[in-house]
Every structure is written in structure tokens, then in C-alpha cells.
Amino acid sequence: MAARRLVVLSAGISDPSSTRLLADRLTRAVLDDLDARGVETEVSVFELRDYAHDIMNNMLTGFAPKPLAEVMASVAAADAIIAVTPIFSTSYSGLFKSFVDVLDRDAIEGTPVLLGATAGTPRHSLAIDYAIRPLFTYLHAEPVPTGVFAASDDWGQGADRVAPLQKRIDRGARELADAVAGRGESEKADPFSPESYLGEGGSFETLLGGIGR
After folding, report:
1. For residue 5, what are the contacts with CB-CB under 8 A and spacing of at least 6?
2. pLDDT tens across 157-178, in order?
3. Which of 54, 168, 198, 199 has its CA 20 to 30 A from that of 27?
4. CB burial string 138-147: b at 16+ within 10 A, e below
5. Cβ proximity of 72 and 102 under 8 Å
6. How confident is the model over 38-48, as a mean pLDDT?
């Protein structure tokens, strides 16, 4: 089976950023899960702030500069996406939304996506489900059920003891790995192959030999 292509989009503004930190931990968890299943994976990580000017130029002119066009091509070819954004004013960042706006409308149709978000307070934890998930659903992507939100306290001594961050990361990663592995299985199954209706080891000779008996 060909290596699966995982694209990671981080919309963090600062360097370093908690958004990138969460993206890295989600990526590591997904790769570990897929590796345990024997699924080879190629990863491409993009910091959207590096393409901010290109994104704006695309919005103004309708044409993507080459660096941005290469990112968009990688996203369109991905077998799975991890997308993480900081939360500003109760929703995704403008940079994150602007990148999604310049994507081709059908670029991520049917693509499984693991959503992540970061903010200073847990009060924004519902933003994934009321803002980010509908955005990807509109594009006919397939967000996995678990979205992973991380507030400032999740990184320090005050981390949530009821639903610790790593537990949420592992659950979301497992769901994305399930989707990736499932896509691989569906690609391997050829509905027109002899095995699909003759069974393993079957042949046309066996099928024809039964005629007239």
C-alpha cells in the first residue's frame, strides 16, 4: 500500500506558539497510531503565517503565488488533515479562515480532518463545534468526532485532571487513524477484481467450469 499523505496546518501567530505545539502533539499521536497499524505515512507541516502575504495576494488577485499554490496542492492531495487554529473573538483566526477561503471549493471533499484549537481560557472550548466544524462540513470534508481544544492551563500545573489533554489528543488521533486506515482498505478493494465475486484463490476457469454441470 502506498504511503498515506498527512498534511498539518497550523495557524499560530507567534513563534513558538501553543497552536504549533498542539499541532505537533496531534501529529505525533496520529503517526504513532498509524505506525502501530503498519501504515506508512508521509507528513507535510505548514505554518500558515509563513504564507500570510501570499494568501492576501490570492484574495486580491484571484491567483495563488507559487509557494501558496504548492501548499494548496498538498492539501488537495492529502489523505488526512490536521488543522489547528488559535481562537480570537470566540472563533477561528482571520488567517485560518482566509486560507480556507482561497482553497478550491472541492479541494478537501471527503478528506478526514482532525480539528484543534487553542485559547487562553477554557471558555472558548466550544468554538471547535460551533465555528470550526461547520466550516469544514460546508466544504464536504469529514471532521472526526473528537476536536481537541487546549487552553493555557492545559500546558501547566493547572492542567485539567478530569479530561487531561493527552487523553483528548489520543482519542482524536485514534479517530483520524481509523479514517486513514479505512481509506487505505477501500482503495485496496477492487469491486471488479475476480476475488470480489470468486473468492480468494478463485479464477474465471473455475467459474466457467461449473457451467453446464
Report:
1. 41, 42, 44, 74, 77, 78, 79, 80
2. 555 554 589 999 999 999 999 9
3. 54
4. ebebbbbebb
5. yes
6. 97
**Amino acid 154: pLDDT:** 86
Beta-ladder partners of 7: 44, 81
Q: What's at 48, amino acid-wise? A: L
Share of the chain above pLDDT 90, in %: 72
The arithmetic mean of pLDDT across residues 108-128, rounded, is 94
Q: Using pLDDT thresholds of 50, 70 and 90, give the confidence band for residue 201.
A: low
> In which domain, by residue range, is 114 found?
4-209
Q: How does the average pLDDT of the chain come out, rounded?
A: 87
Residue whose C-alpha is closest to residue 177's, from 41, 10, 9, 21: 41
Q: Where are the alpha helices (DSSP H) in the chain?
A: 18-36, 52-61, 66-77, 94-102, 127, 133-138, 165-188, 194-198, 204-209
Helix (H, G, I), strand (E, B) or coil at 145: coil
CATH number of the domain that residue 120 is part of: 3.40.50.360
Q: Tell me how far apart the alpha carbons of residues 144 and 141 are, in angstroms, rounded to a whole number.
A: 10
Number of Cα atoms under 13 Å in the Cβ half of residue 127: 23
- Run of H or E including 84: strand 80-88
Q: Which amino acid, residue 139?
A: L
Best CA proximity match to 6, nearest among 140, 32, 185, 19: 32
Answer yes or no: are the C-beta atoms of 188 and 1 closer than 8 Å. Answer: yes
Residue with cell 509563513: 50
The 3-state DSSP class for residue 113 equals strand
